[in-house]
Amino acid sequence: MMAGLLLLAAGTVPFAAGLVIITYLLPNSTTTSAGLVTALSLVVGLLLPWVSYQRLALFGNGYLRRSLARKWEQAGHLPPATTFVGFSPGSDLRMWEGETDRDVGFLELAAGALIYRGDSFSWSLRRENINSIDLLEEPGAPPRIVVHWHIPGQPGRAFTLASREANTLGGMRDATQALYRTLTQWHAATPSADSVPPLGSPPTALAGSIPIEKLPAGACLSILSVAVITVLAVWYAAEQFIGQGFYYHAVLWSGLIVVAAMIFLSYFLSYLQAAEARTSSPNTI
């Protein structure tokens, strides 16, 4: 909610500031100065939400890491050489109540196994039970590492990881790619007979998630409704100002309405995804 409010502010404040300047601080709102203010407000109003999202997508990540580290330090089970990661069962990119991570925790590359200690789950996976490690890259989303594994005599399984040792989406992408290279080198090494803590196998249940490319129920109606309302609002606002000769006001009000509607729609669709995921039936992979 905090991230959503900050992103909404990032998209609307530049337009609102431009309107205040050309309305109250300039003697004539039809001059070249007003046009420059309008152009600057448009550029900032369109770019700032994108720049802000790069940081707000990981809003609270540092707090999660510190609080989880305290939990495991108090339990005496947090080795120094660990990576803070996001974990999700399954081999494809899924949404878990608006997040692409089902859980967050610390991953240790021990001599003979992967060891994960997280907020909701803890598990260990011997190196010889890992079939392959791949990198999943989807357009518009940070990459995820896919670990294919098995239990002898049972069907193959998979889970995905993403490094959260970053504060921005770009940093998360670089950190995940670096972790992928480290994991592939670790997997290629000779298996070790070292003892592995009995934490159980990685969970496989996909209950509470939906594929990220799947539109939630009601998405089409929501998109159409917001689009119609936005067009009507822009038409009404622009018509009023253009009729009075205030063209820059019309541009800024139109931009303000469109950006606010797009941000609202994005978060509303995330809410619909989260609501649908809560009612999904349990399944495994």
Describe this structure in words.
With 285 residues, this protein is of the alpha+beta class. It folds into two domains: 2-56 and 215-277, no CATH class; 61-209, Pleckstrin-homology domain (PH domain)/Phosphotyrosine-binding domain (PTB) (PH-domain like, Roll). The protein is built from six helices and nine strands. A seven-stranded antiparallel beta sheet has the order 5-4-3-1-8-7-6, sandwiched between helices. The model is unreliable at 281-285 (pLDDT under 50).
Mean pLDDT: 88
In DSSP terms, counting alpha (H) and pi (I) runs of 4 or more, how many helices?
6
Distance between the termini: 32 Å
CATH architecture of the largest domain: Roll
Which term fits the overall shape? elongated
Strand content: 15-25%
Tell me about the largest β-sheet: 7 strands, antiparallel
Per CATH, the class of the largest domain reads Mainly Beta
Number of strands: 9
Please trace the helix and strand order, writing H or E for each element: HHHEEEEEEEEHEHH
Q: What gyration radius follows from the Cα positions, in whole Å?
A: 24 Å
* DSSP helix fraction: 40-55%
